Each structure stands twice: as C-alpha cells, then as structure tokens.
C-alpha cells in the first residue's frame, strides 16, 4: 500500500494542527531552514501548502510548491485564491521532475520517507541536486531513520501512533495513525537507514550532510510542561536532515 493523499487531503490539513507539529516539528524545521530573505525556494511534497505559506510569510522571495497529489495541489491553490500570497503550485513527482529552474533552497517535509527502496530515494535526491544552485541547501524533516520503530514508545498522547508489522529491516513499511477530532487517518511510509540516505545524498553530489534531532519551543514547555514531551524527544519519530550542493 502506498498512501494516496487524494483521499485524505482535507484530513491531513487538520493533522498539521496537533500541538507537536507546532512546538516540535515546525519549530525545529524552521530553525534549520534559517534565513529566507530574498531566497528562491522549492517546497517538494508541499501537500496543501502548509510550509510553502510559512516560508513565503517569513521572507522568501519566491516559493514554488510541488506535490504528486492533485487533491493536495487543488487545496493549496484554493487557499492561494482565498488569501493570495504569491505562492505557485504545481503537480509533479519528485522522482522525475525536471526543468531549467534553479533554487537557493529546497525543503521537503516528509518526502524522502515515501521512497520505497534505495533507487527511489536516489531518484528523489538526484532531482533535488538537479534543481539546487551550487552552494544551495536542502533541508528536510522526515521519519527518523535512527529510530527502530518496531520498539518505539507510544505517541498516543500527542495524537498519533506508529506501528511496524513484520521484521524491522530496510524498506519495512511504517504505519502512522493520526487521531483527529472526528476521524482517524492512516499513512504508510518506508524505513531506509541513515547510511542509505547519506549514500544517496553523496551519489547525487550533495555534501555537508547533517542530522538534527528535534527540539522543543519555549511555548511548548510553557503550555504543556517539559515532562509531557519526554517520549517524543527521547525517541523522536521525526528528524531533520540538511545538506548542500
Ligand atoms: C505527509 S504529507 C506532507 C505534506 C507537507 N509537506 C506537509 O508537511 O504538510 C506527504 C506528501 O508527500 C507527497 N508525495 C509523496 N510522494 C511524492 C513524490 N514522489 N513526489 C511529490 N510528492 C510526493 C504526498 O502527495 C503528500 O502530499
């Protein structure tokens, strides 16, 4: 099974409102994305445009969002029509997308974990390298390949759970179940090791590869207390990866 976002576009948008997204995911991702002033940014696997809008509002000069799902892009375009920000959205596959455009920065929130094998991961990183200007950076937030999801703690208190059926090995499917107010959505992606990611980056001509564990905003500590975040931060299911061309 590969997750078809055409069926869950609206619900996935609501899953972005869970507090761990704000206080851990977005907080950490933006820290590593850094200064956006004047930058030309490509948001790969942009979904309904959550990060595309955030990056434009934080000073990026131009933002293009690309996603495989027609419904996700329709939802992103609808929001752009309702509140114009100047973000451009296109349907495309990050494994095969090509054009002569070049970007200072490429971001991707939960793209690489849709690579079902090292070849697909390699294809995604070749695309990223193709679109990056020399000296440009790629920053992603992704499922954490340093975590053995088969023995991960419960994350139910944050509104989601993860599960692995079968042996924990390269290409093992990981199920994410998001508990939303009125429904539950399930998403499946794949485990590929940190070494497989690093090899694919190098093979695509990307260097200065760094992994960044998630961190917590002060507001998150203030609102929920430090203890609440302990399972998420001690065995984080998400991580950032950064590299340069
Ligand atoms: C978990 S959602 C994340 C969406 C968005 N980045 C966010 O954080 O809100 C993953 C997205 O990856 C997209 N996706 C999966 N494989 C893709 C591919 N090969 N090329 C482009 N988008 C892809 C899906 O359609 C989906 O919208």
Write the layout of secondary structure elements.
Elements: H1 9-15, H2 19-33, E1 40-44, H3 50-57, E2 62-67, H4 70-82, E3 88-91, E4 103-109, H5 118-131, E5 132-143, E6 160-163, E7 173-179, E8 184-190, H6 194-203, E9 207-212, H7 218-224, H8 230-234, E10 238-244
Helix pairs in contact: 5-6
The structure holds S-adenosylmethionine.
S-adenosylmethionine (SAM) is lined by residues 5, 16, 45-47, 50-51, 67-69, 72, 93-95, 109-111, 114.
What is the residue-averaged pLDDT?
Answer: 95
Gyration radius from CA atoms, angstroms: 17 Å
**CATH A-level architecture:** 3-Layer(aba) Sandwich
Cofactors and ligands present? Answer: S-adenosylmethionine
Q: Ranges with pLDDT <50 over ≥5 residues?
A: none
Helix content: 25-40%
CATH fold call: Rossmann fold
Order of helices and strands: HHEHEHEEHEEEEHEHHE
Write down the overall geometry.
Answer: globular
Q: Termini, distance in Å? A: 33 Å
- Number of distinct helices: 8
CATH level-1 class: Alpha Beta
How does the major sheet shape up? 7 strands, mixed
Query: At the fourth CATH level, what is the homologous superfamily?
Result: Vaccinia Virus protein VP39
- Indicate how many domains the architecture comprises: 1
Beta strand count: 10
Derived from helix and strand composition plus strand pairing, the structural class reads: alpha/beta
């Amino acid at each position: 099974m590969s997750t078809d976002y055409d069926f869950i576009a609206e619900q996935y948008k609501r899953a972005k409102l869970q507090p761990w997204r704000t206080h851990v995911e977005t907080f950490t991702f933006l820290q590593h994305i850094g200064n956006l002033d004047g930058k030309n940014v490509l948001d790969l696997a942009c979904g309904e445009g959550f990060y595309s809008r955030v990056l434009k509002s934080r000073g990026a000069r131009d933002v293009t969002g690309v996603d495989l799902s027609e419904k996700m892009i329709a939802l992103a375009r609808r929001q752009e029509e309702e509140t114009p920000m100047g973000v451009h959205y296109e349907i495309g596959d990050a494994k095969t997308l090509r054009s002569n455009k070049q970007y200072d920065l490429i971001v991707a929130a939960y793209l690489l974990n849709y690579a079902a094998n090292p070849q697909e991961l390699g294809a995604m990183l070749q695309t990223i390298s193709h679109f990056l200007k020399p000296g440009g950076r790629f920053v992603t937030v992704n499922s954490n390949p340093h975590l053995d999801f088969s023995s991960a703690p419960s994350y139910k208190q944050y509104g989601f759970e993860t599960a692995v059926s079968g042996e924990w090995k390269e290409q093992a499917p990981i199920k994410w179940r998001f508990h939303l107010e009125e429904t539950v959505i399930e998403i499946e992606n794949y485990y590929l090791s940190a070494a497989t990611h690093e090899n694919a980056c190098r093979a695509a001509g990307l260097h200065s590869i760094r992994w960044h564990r998630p961190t917590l905003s002060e507001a998150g500590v203030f609102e929920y207390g430090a203890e609440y975040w302990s399972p998420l931060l001690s065995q984080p299911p998400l991580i950032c990866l950064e590299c340069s061309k």
